[in-house]
Amino acid sequence: MSQCPFSSEAPRAPFPIARQCPFVPPQEYREFQQYDGPVKVRMWDGREAWLFTRYDDVRAVLSDNRFSGDPSVTGFPSLSEARNAVLGLEPAFIRMDPPQHGHFRRMLTKEFMVKKIAAMQPMIATIFNRLLDELIAKGPPANLVNDLFLPFTSEVIASLLDVPREDHGFFQEQSRLKVLLDVGPEVPREASARMLAYLDALITEREKDAEQRSDLLSRLIVGQVRPGHLSHRELVVMADLLLMAGHETTANQMALGVYSFLTHPDQLARLRAEPDLLRNAVEEMLRFHTIVHFNAFRVAREDVEVAGQLVRRGEGVIALIAGANHDARAFPAPDSFDITRKADHHVAFSYGVHQCLGQPLARAELQVVFGTLFERLRELQFAVSVDEIRTKGDHFVQGLQRLPVTW
Ligand code: HEM
Fold first, then answer.
1. Amino acid 207: pLDDT
2. Confidence class of residue 398 from pLDDT cuts 50, 70 and 90?
3. How many domains does the chain contain in total?
4. Contact present, 35 and 4 (Cβ < 8 Å)
5. Atom 41 (ligand 1): residue with closest C-alpha?
6. For residue 348, how far is its CA from the centre of ligand 1 (angstroms)?
7. Would the CB of 67 count as within 6 Å of ligand 1?
8. Is any ligand 1 atom within 6 A of the Cβ of residue 87?
9. Residue 271 has pLDDT above 50, yes or no
10. Comparing C-alpha atoms, which of 290, 280, 289 is closest to residue 321?
11. CATH no. for residue 303?
12. Residue-number span of the structural domain to which 345 is assigned
């Protein structure tokens, strides 16, 4: 393997790199994977970071706790000014390092265990079928993002936390604003302040009668806040993370998944003919789209050698899961959407200590959607020309702006 021309002195590649095709990662990642070691990239603020795109290297970085995920550590790379504004807020455990991270995450692990989520599957299916009944009753056309997927994922996470239905539109909107990249820093900052104020009031009320309730927030109040393991404010910040991570991501994945099936009718026919492929198909769409496409940013807490490269203390690192999931060494023909491939080893939920806590829930929801939607709507198709379907190119989480369909 040759040495990367970017990794010694100049020139540097800029980051982020624009996608040639909005539905697959930029071709440059493939080029970078030909070289030994990482590539140096230049961020919007002129600072540089090491970009890792190979599957093995990404996993090596993400499983090495000498790399910090705490944005307050000097040298942490910055994606945009708006993103900085979000990262500069009170951190939830997603932005903490061990051992502090584990202290908070452990309070939730049993809530999201595979067995516990499996028991919720009938409830999840009931919610989805009811929303689909309503959509069918209204008749086509529909925008599946706003008319089905966001209401569905919002209702599932909100029922877990017992957040009132009339507030779903509010938290959907604040979450949307928080992941915008090309806006002034006040946009995500103010959205976050509104969410925290809302949850502060909700949790203050909940604290009055938590013992009489059975929702997740009440269980955390009784089990963690009352004995002093978690402060009221820490619970507010944790609830914010759960509510946002719990609906925005999965709804985006559903929209992109539908897009991929409608643009790959052979794959859709295969899924309909062999429903046992459902589990595989869900893993493949997670891999193929890798919706948290700029993940993961880290900074070296000490000098670390990885993939033959010495990363010095204070240098920024990007272990790009979107690159890893399209590395031909790990996934042959990575840019093709193939629901028969074994994609279970993908890193769409990240890797290491910050690996997605909600992945069993996300998988359960995706399996309900893709096991039901194409069966109940046999004639599902785009209601506009495929060229009019736009991705959320300016968001931290990849998705579709709208998904107009008819049936
Ligand atoms: C398709 C859907 C989803 C995808 C692709 C996804 C992806 C991810 C990724 C890449 C991370 C790592 C973030 C980082 O290192 O900065 C993460 C973390 C996390 N996700 Fe998800 N996620 C999804 C759905 C969910 C759901 C439904 C929940 C439910 C609450 C959830 C809760 C979390 C939490 C709490 C973390 C932080 C874990 C930690 O730092 O220990 N996610 N997710």
1. 98
2. very high
3. 1
4. yes
5. 354
6. 9
7. no
8. no
9. yes
10. 290
11. 1.10.630.10
12. 13-406
pLDDT mean over 241-257: 95
Q: What is the DSSP letter of 328?
A: T
Does the beta carbon of 250 sit less than 6 angstroms from any atom of ligand 1? yes
27: in domain? yes
Q: Which residues contact 41 (CB under 8 A, 6 or more apart)?
A: 6, 12, 13, 14, 15, 48, 49, 50, 51, 318
Which atom of ligand 1 sits closest to the CA of residue 347?
10
Report the nearest atom of ligand 1 relative to the CA of 247.
27
pLDDT digits (tens, 9 = 90+) for 136-157: 999 999 999 999 999 999 999 9
Structure tokens that stand for 291 in this block? 């919706």
Q: How far is the CA of 358 from the centre of ligand 1 (A)?
A: 6
CA distances, 298 to each of 165, 221, 384 (Å): 37, 32, 40
Hey, what are 20's tokens? 């040639």
Q: For residue 361, is it within any domain?
A: yes
189 lines ligand 1 (CB under 6 A): no
Report the distance separating Cα 180 and Cα 278, nearest Å.
32
Check pLDDT > 50 for residue 175: yes
Atom of ligand 1 at shortest range from CA of 96: 40
- Residue 132 falls in which region: left (phi positive, over 0), alpha (psi -120 to 50) or beta: alpha
For ligand 1, mutation pick of 356, 361, 400 (most atoms within 8 Å of CB): 356
Confidence of residue 12 (pLDDT cuts 50, 70, 90): low
* Ligand 1 pocket test, candidate residues 249, 254, 256, most atoms within 8 A of CB: 249
| Positive or negative torsion for Cα 134, 283, 240, 219 | positive
Q: What is the pLDDT of residue 11?
A: 42
Whether 226 is covered by a domain: the verdict is: yes
Residues 102-125 have pLDDT tens digits of: 999 999 999 999 999 999 999 999
Q: What is the C-alpha to C-alpha distance for residues 41 and 95, in angstroms, rounded to an integer?
A: 22
Is residue 4 included in any domain, yes or no? no
Is 62 close to ligand 1, i.e. is its CB under 6 Å away?
A: no
Q: CA 177, CA 179: separation in Å to the nearest integer?
A: 6
